[in-house]
Amino acid sequence: MDSPRLLPPDQHPFVLASGSPRRRDICASIGLIPDQIIAPDIDETARPREMPRAYALRMAVEKANEIRRRNTDSFILAADTVVACGRRILPKAENEAEQIACLALLEGRAHRVWGGICLITPAGHQMTRLAESRVQMRRLGADERAAYLASKEGLGKAGGYAIQGLAAGFIHHLSGSWSNIVGLDAYLVHNMLRAADFHYG
Asked: What's phi and psi for 94, nearest 5 deg?
């Protein structure tokens, strides 16, 4: 009986396990074009007293494994971005009231953005990384806040803002990865794929 033919790592499909256009764009910016983009369908409820960094990593792992069940011959990359104010996990602001509440917590103080990343290889090997960025948002004038809310740019975004848009003008200082704050740490992803012998671009 013939042995199964083993493909080189970079000949296996690459699946981005995310429905986020921002993660797709970050991948494209470093020359990484997915063969498939599949949004995972998992329960994203935080556990009682779960810390933000643990939650971000758990979500990335669960997303990757959910897609892995149907794509066992692929490289699968999943990520999760968590905006945290202290130990508090801020929601993706789905309406103006949630966005106002998020901004009230973030204005005039530093917060952290945790980025959990999980890569699963065709052989089933799982690699995880955790990115941490620290962001200082200044206090907003009433007119600035009203204009930002009216733009609706922060809706659907963790913490109620998008650093790659109008909110860039509110950020006094940041340390760590900018792309992590947008949704995916490009540096970590690139090096994880190299470590897995997956070459692209």
From this structure: -95, -10
Establish whether 35 is a catalytic residue: no
pLDDT digits (tens, 9 = 90+) for 141-198: 999 999 999 999 999 999 999 999 999 999 999 999 999 999 999 999 999 999 999 9
Cα 97–chain centre separation: 24
Please, are residues 60 and 40 in contact by the beta-carbon 8 Å criterion? no
Average pLDDT of span 85-109:
96
User: Can you say whether residue 161 is alpha, beta or left, with left for phi > 0 and alpha for psi between -120 and 50 degrees?
Assistant: beta
AA letter at 91? P
What is the DSSP code (8-state) at residue 127? Answer: E
CA atoms within 13 A on the CB side of 65: 12
Domains and CATH numbers, the chain: 13-195 (3.90.950.10)
Whole-prediction pTM value?
Answer: 0.92
From 25, 41, 80, 185, the catalytic residue: 80
What are the tens digits of pLDDT across the range 110-122? Answer: 999 999 999 999 9
**How crowded is the C-beta side of 6, counted as CA atoms within 13 Å?**
5
Torsion of CA 94, 96, 101, 104, to 10 degrees: 130
The residue written with tokens 């930002």 in the block is 148
